[in-house]
Amino acid sequence: MSWKDSAAYKAYSALGERPRGLEPWGVNNAGEVVIGLGELFCRCNIADEGEEVELCRKPRFSHTGNLRSHVKTAHKMKVAEVRKGTSSGSEGIEAEKFYKAIIKKHDALGADYDPNSEIEQTPGPVTPSKPPKKIHRPLVPRKKDRTVNKSQMRKTAGIGKWCPACKEVKRTCPGPKGSNCKAWEAFTSESESESESGTKI
Ligand SMILES: [Zn+2]
Ligand SMILES: [Zn+2]
To answer: pLDDT-derived band of residue 196, with 50, 70 and 90 as boundaries?
Structure first.
């Protein structure tokens, strides 16, 4: 079985983001970056000298060849050549070990390792919606005989001869109570005023 078929490598190559706890690359004696077999994530340390290690934020590369050219062009680093024909032997075993270690560390560090996930998505303080302001509307004006004083109603409501609703249906304004007549909207209904009278301050 090839190292590429190992569970560890399959898990590694399925990761959308760099595995947690990934170490930056070292360089060989020639000053070249040694990219392992099948590596898909850039491990270049992009932090300034003396600062905490910060790996390149590039997401997973589709294959190692792309990663190699990225390291050469984006990071201007020399990359150690892959020795041909050796990947089936000891290097394959090394690769399998390497990915096992990466996945083990990734799993051990857990999802809360990601600093972004530490910011809990707590909902903001719930602002109670204010109750609608009570508009003090006058009582429906009535004549001495207790019938509705329609002309006084229109006057109080600031309506000319008709409100728009009554004009549209060609009826005398105010129209019947409970209709869409705008004149009624300016007044308080008797039942409303009764319940309010007791609570007035
Ligand atoms: Zn990079
Ligand atoms: Zn009307």
So the answer is: very low
